[in-house]
Amino acid sequence: MSFFSSAKAKLAASKLAEEQLYAHAAEEVASGQIRQGLWAKALAETGGDVAAAKAQYLKLRVEIMKAEAEVTDYAMKQAAKTVPNTG
To answer: How would DSSP label each residue in 48-68?
Structure first.
């Protein structure tokens, strides 16, 4: 597989993963299970416009979920480094 094919595949996978994150965030909003602090930030950033705040909340929530995934991935890699190799 060439570099460009690999990069293209990674980009496609990233876009699909991001779509799933947006779907999850939209489900949270629809069910009313939102993070109050993040909602307050979205409202503040949109001047109190509720419709715009919903869109901003989705963007912010996806950013947070990506950050959470990165932290989890990092923690798992660090934990794997501390496990003795018994093989």
So the answer is: T-HHHHHHHHHHHHHHHHHHH
